[in-house]
Amino acid sequence: MKPPRADLDILMKRLGRDIGLDFGGAAGWWEEVDLLVQRRPGKRDIGVVADLAAADQLLINRLKTRRGELAALGHPDYGSRHHELLGEPNVERTRNLIKRHVLECLGHEPRIDRILSCTVEGQRSEPSTVRIVVTVRLIDHDDPLNLVVPFSLESGL
Hints:
Layout: H1 5-15, E1 17-19, E2 21-24, E3 32-35, E4 37-40, E5 43-46, E6 48-50, H2 51-64, H3 92-107, E7 112-122, E8 129-138, E9 145-152
Antiparallel strand pairs: 1-6, 2-3, 4-5, 7-8, 8-9
């Protein structure tokens, strides 16, 4: 059942709007990014995302940003520390540390009501890569949001 329109309006206001990002490159890697271009007849402008598209983007940005990277802009706790594990072996201990850092990172996001699950899985086909699989419940939203973020432990990637 869809929530009433008034509830959707509140959710959309709380999730906010942001400059749209166009994630290119290999599917799901979220590495190559450019501004989203909105095309209208005779015009091109920077695209904007809102609603649940903004939620995907805000989670990806928070996880892909190294903690402390935005300290000079007044956001010292924004981002994740799992990037500190580059070069570590893909073993259970490393995957547990990645999970711990991801949970800490997402715990700072005020638009997440609850983290329902978080797993970090090794990849047989790519031994130095893990898949971070997160399911969250956003504020004022009943349907869970799923996100899969690959992470390479190889330094320099």
